[in-house]
Write a structure and sequence with these properties.
Elements (H helix, E strand, L loop, with lengths): L2 H9 L9 H19 L2 H27 L8 E7 L9 H9 L12 E8 L7 H11 L4 E4 L2 H4 L7 H12 L2 E4 L6 H10 L8 H4 L6 H6 L2
Helix pairs in contact: 1-2, 5-7
Bound molecules: iron/sulfur cluster (SF4).
Iron/sulfur cluster binds next to loops.
Length: about 220
């Protein structure tokens, strides 16, 4: 039966009224089988495959187009971390744990996917690598650069935090957050004893990583 006729008969069946239920079921099955063989004709299956391949190619092409227009398809926030060179042997355990658990300064990403695109040190006082690390991270499309908690809790804290933040923000137009993992309890106690953070200028710098006591203890 030509396709159009088959569809027409399916859309407006001429099933005679008054037949027993078993005959009605057989009539339905026959029609379903015909519809199935109509759908799965080899030529039709090939046609669907070609359409699907074309659709895939279109999605890919438009993805490249959107990217070239500055529209980022990935929703993950790209993060770069710069640590104090005093801790250059650090494997990043606390920072990466905090990033995974969204603790400390990473709590701002509670509802967001994140992707680490760079991790390096400042290369020692006075932080000569800040300039180059920023360039590299921008090439990897960084959204936010974190200056690690080590800059704040070191003995003494880094004296260049404000300069690093201002430089990176002005030069690259990216957001810079001071802090990564929560301040460990032992560091808070020692700096409280030393009076390190008594000046109000420290308040916004330590606030993102203060966390609660239980969390601070877990980072000791
Ligand atoms: S104190 Fe500051 S400049 Fe010195 S090594 Fe640490 S982060 Fe770098």
């Amino acid at each position: 039966m030509p396709d159009k006729m088959l569809l027409k008969s399916w859309a407006a069946p001429s099933y005679p009224a008054g037949l027993p239920r078993s005959s009605w079921m057989a009539w339905m099955c026959r029609r379903l089988m015909k519809i199935r063989s109509w759908i799965f004709q080899p030529a039709r299956v090939t046609y669907v495959r070609v359409c699907f391949t074309g659709l895939q190619a279109a999605v890919k092409t438009y993805g490249i187009f959107w990217k070239s227009q500055g529209v980022e398809m990935s929703t993950a926030t790209k993060i770069g971390i710069i640590i104090c060179d005093r801790y250059r042997r650090c494997a990043g355990g606390k920072c990466l744990r905090a990033m995974r658990n969204r603790e400390g300064a990473f709590s701002i990403y509670a509802d967001t996917d994140v992707e680490l695109i760079g991790f390096t040190t400042c290369d020692g006082c006075p932080g000569g690598n800040i300039e180059y690390a920023g360039d590299e991270m921008v090439k990897n499309e960084v959204d936010v650069i974190h200056l690690a908690t080590g800059l704040v809790v070191g003995y003494p804290p880094c004296p260049y935090i404000a300069t690093f933040k201002a430089l990176l923000e002005k030069r690259h137009g990216v957001k810079v957050v001071v802090g990564t993992h929560p301040i460990p309890k032992k560091y808070l106690e020692m700096h409280t004893h030393l009076g390190t953070w008594e000046d109000s200028v420290w308040k916004p710098l330590i606030e993102p990583t203060m966390a609660d006591e239980e969390v601070r203890m877990s980072y000791d």
